[in-house]
Specification:
349 residues; Rossmann fold; 5-stranded antiparallel β-sheet; 24% helix
């Protein structure tokens, strides 16, 4: 195990309580602003001190409140990519990278030149951070982290300071770095698409706690909690009531749904992703098929979004997203929609 975290830290109006483990994989902390993601990274790095708990990196204890262990950041061998990159403004790109290398001075030049070539920074190596682009600053910061030979990598919203046209390219570059890194990477983001593309495992944070953890496929297919469903982009959510093991009432939508998965006793909400609804011809008798009323059609470049409700009098609009090619024949304000039993998400909280 490369990383083990079990910590608590209490503030007057906020409590952080995190249990997290990582091996040779990318673990994403997914959550809204203020939920404790960055604070968790700072505790792992030694910038913030938890009130109690343990942090273990590569079988070495770096924090243990009971044993009185609290190693300083420089002894934890953690590579931390800050949102603002934290480059030294009075040092050139070359010196920013060189200053963290612990090996003999005779080896430093070749190490820096190799990483500069790898990150395509040759043309700016003698410039200062203020003279280079945001993407170049990020590559410099990442290069500096890697030459320090960290045990774990931590990336705090690595694309938030980049212009839109740079994000995709930098994401691919970071993905290549992560694929070669032999250890745990903790990746913080509130962007579900970035998290899905870059991570192996996702931990959903809400109000200082990790609510659920799993592989990215499991978290997106079956988020389990309301916060997880919202953070993974579910746009259709209703309060719910369990009727039996295979039926749940969607209170806000005014319908009863048959489910493929067993309905948990503590279900509080039900969710359906906008692209999981299906149009059903009038001749079909499939389960969970209901007449609905279209309130509005929003046209996107390659798809249409139908805002609809189950029943003309309902005031709760649901979203049904579908490609233009499939829905060209839908001219009526009335249609029948199926909620597939295997796509219904029963949510706690």
């Amino acid at each position: 195990m490369s990383l083990y975290v079990d910590i608590e830290k209490t503030f007057p109006d906020f409590k952080l309580s995190v249990q997290l483990e990582g091996g040779d994989d990318v673990v994403a902390l997914l959550g809204s602003s203020g939920c404790g993601k960055s604070l968790t990274l700072k505790c792992i790095a030694g910038i913030e001190k938890p009130d109690k708990g343990r942090i273990i990196i590569n079988d070495g204890i770096v924090f243990d409140s009971e044993k009185g262990v609290n190693l300083p950041p420089q002894k934890r061998c953690v590579g931390y990519l800050f949102q603002n990159y934290a480059l030294f403004p009075t040092m050139t790109v070359w010196n920013n990278i060189a200053c963290v290398i612990k090996k003999p001075k005779s080896q430093r030049h070749s190490i820096v030149e190799d990483i500069i070539n790898k990150f395509q920074l040759e043309s700016v190596k003698n410039l200062y951070p203020r003279q280079i682009s945001g993407g170049q600053q990020q590559r410099t910061a990442l290069a500096r982290i890697l030459v320090s030979e960290p045990r774990i990598l931590m990336l705090d919203e690595p694309f938030s300071a980049l212009d839109t046209h740079l994000k995709w390219r930098m994401e691919q570059e970071i993905a290549s770095v992560l694929a070669e890194f032999d250890g745990t990477t903790v990746f913080v983001s509130h962007n579900r698409d970035e998290v899905y593309r870059l991570s192996d495992k996702i931990a959903v944070m809400n109000n200082g706690r990790i609510e659920t953890t799993g592989t990215k496929k499991d978290i997106f297919d079956s988020p389990k909690t309301l916060a997880a469903a919202l953070m993974t982009g579910c746009k259709n959510i209703s309060k719910a009531e369990k009727l039996d093991d295979s039926h749940v009432k969607a209170i806000d939508w005014g319908i009863v749904l048959k489910t493929e998965r067993v309905v948990p006793n503590n279900v509080k909400h039900v969710g359906v992703r906008a692209h999981h609804f299906r149009y059903i011809p009038e001749t079909s008798n499939e389960d969970n098929t209901f007449p609905c009323h279209i309130h509005k059609i929003i046209e996107e470049p390659f798809e249409k979004t139908f805002m609809f409700s189950f029943g003309a009098g309902a005031d709760v609009n649901l979203r049904f997203e579908i490609s233009k090619e499939v829905c060209e024949k839908w001219d009526s304000k009335e249609l029948r929609v199926c909620v597939p039993a295997d796509k219904i998400m029963c949510l706690e909280g």
